[in-house]
Amino acid sequence: MLITKKHDITIKEISKLSGASTSTVSRVLNESGYVSTEKRQAIEKVIRETNYRPSMIARSLHSKQTKTLAVVLPDVSNPYFIGLIEEIEHVSEGYGYTLILINTMSTGADKMNAVDDPEVKALHTIQEKHVDGAVIIGGEIDHVNVDSQYLKTLNELNKQIPVVIIAQKVENCDCIFVQRHINTGMRLIVQHILSLGYRKIGFLGGKPGVRVTEQRLAEFEKLVKMYTDYDDKSVLLNDYYLKDGYQGIEKLLNQTDLNAVVAINDRVALGAVRRLHEMGMNVPKDIVIGSADQFPDSDYYIPSITTINQHNNSLGKIAVEQLIRSFNGQPFLTAESEFPDLVIRESCGEKKYSNVLKK
Amino acid sequence: MLITKKHDITIKEISKLSGASTSTVSRVLNESGYVSTEKRQAIEKVIRETNYRPSMIARSLHSKQTKTLAVVLPDVSNPYFIGLIEEIEHVSEGYGYTLILINTMSTGADKMNAVDDPEVKALHTIQEKHVDGAVIIGGEIDHVNVDSQYLKTLNELNKQIPVVIIAQKVENCDCIFVQRHINTGMRLIVQHILSLGYRKIGFLGGKPGVRVTEQRLAEFEKLVKMYTDYDDKSVLLNDYYLKDGYQGIEKLLNQTDLNAVVAINDRVALGAVRRLHEMGMNVPKDIVIGSADQFPDSDYYIPSITTINQHNNSLGKIAVEQLIRSFNGQPFLTAESEFPDLVIRESCGEKKYSNVLKK
DNA sequence: TTGTATGCGTTATCAA
DNA sequence: TTGATAACGCATACAA
């Protein structure tokens, strides 16, 4: 059974059916120029009856804009990205833009050469689809050493359409950057734990070679060195997922003795809490776990996670607005997200636990 | 500072620069027809140097296909949908299709009239953008009484492009449906709890008026009535989120005495577990909580949630493949997801707790 | 107030 | 093997 879909109705047919020229139909479509009430009503009637909708693609060919934005990210299943997508979608919709979503991790292609690199491929797709602007979140651009081929492609794309990147600024990249406060969040959580009296503090999660992670680690080390005898065995980097907290915490505790751990985010924290539970240790009684990056739902965990609200979603709004400004030829503002907040919950315990300095 | 983006390079300019006609350039672009090695190399050189990429929108105007699929869903922050998006993205990418994402809840518009209805609007957008096919997940179509205006729009869209809906089949809708096993999952979890010996079992979460929820509830009631003295006070419907489990469990226990609860999904289950914890009750010792729909990560909760793996993601793959089949004029297969599996974890306890019939 | 003609970037038909 | 040219659906400049 071969399915034959009905031929799309065009402005020409509306023109014929209504006895007006295509120009006149176009005029009522765009509410531009003068059209007699008589003709207008006839045309509107036909449009209604035929369920006609002008083709955006034909329109785009003429107008040079597609009213479409692209969002590129490595992993839609990551809560950090999901919040951003939601916000970007919401704001874009408000401005009349539709979203194209590209999940670069989903390709699973080996990164053998530039052509097969999913991120480079994503940029090519963007160019072909002629979106009006693009938001890029994380991925290659987050690396300490950004692949030069990727960077080149990115800069070329940016010559054609405005590209906003949600990440820490990269020197030789011409795109617009929207970033989070770099060290504030980490400082807040580490100082909280130090203030509670803990002195054997570890760092868990995050990928080596990723700038945010390296920067957070540096800030962590700076602070911890200030107040404790720092031991670099108290650091374990792996990745950002639950399993990394789960597996990592055990390794970390085998390496060194700790009574507090800062996890790179709530997922890693949850993974760690779970493993500790299985090992017969209670959080926060036996060991406290804080997180440097709040994810949704972690207030429902047992224990709930003491963490940092980085106001990630505000980045999404800012990103889209920078794009819109760019369309209008307005200068972009130097953009940073809202100031991070410490969110005190259960996983680091309460004041009462901290009357004595915790060795 | 007004940003002037560089004029897009077109096939014409490649033609000029390479000294060949646009036809010839088009031929090397599409590897169609014969082109002398000499010309081909000249053209390829220019393409490389100029970084030229053909405009998909101009191509689409001619070819009548955009190589784009639309995905419409109510709420991207819902883990059930995220898993599907991920799968749909992955499979689509494999077939060379890009995704447009429409999150109907994000508009927040009041559903006062059909024109402002975000879901109807989404269908209009799809039509305008001339995507090749659409996947619709949940939303209005899930309601017991589907809005007639919406249904009409949906059927009209389906005349123009293939539309796959991931939901239980609706009688007067002509689209292709891809569905989950209706009652199997609920049966598995209820029978598990009954088998453990519990006899005072409640039902928590899900929205009244939504078909999946009503069907699951019906199945729940059927089974529970078979083995226990059923009391309709043991049912509380509200919604699908954490807060619904959190708030709902308390109300439910105020209504009636229970020693087991089936939650509509893992999020609701987690919300309930958390509230019970705060109320000083232990899960599973004081009360057991099972879930009818597995979400990611619930194996890390404390306690981990005993639940049903509905293999939701397989629906995403099936949906895209139905679309592709449709493009090729192949008949669609009656599609159901994989058979659900009971996932025994901690929240319903273990065998040892069930030696005696639990009143 | 309305209609004709042209162009947008590409592909395909048809000659050459 | 190659190059004009028409066509895709729409918007606009220009005429009428």
Automatic annotation (TrEMBL), chains A, B:
Q: Known Pfam families for this protein?
A: LacI, Peripla_BP_3
Q: Where, if anywhere, are coiled coils annotated? A: none
> Which GO molecular function, any one, fits this protein according to its record?
DNA binding
Task: Note the InterPro entries from the entry.
Answer: HTH_LacI, LacI/GalR-like_sensor, Lambda_DNA-bd_dom_sf, Peripla_BP_I
The answer to keyword DNA-binding applying to this record is yes
Q: Which UniProt keywords apply?
A: DNA-binding, Transcription, Transcription regulation
Q: Does the keyword Acyltransferase apply?
A: no
Domain of life here? Bacteria
Which intervals hold domain HTH lacI-type? Answer: 9-63
Protein name per the record: LacI family DNA-binding transcriptional regulator
Q: What organism is recorded for this protein?
A: Companilactobacillus huachuanensis
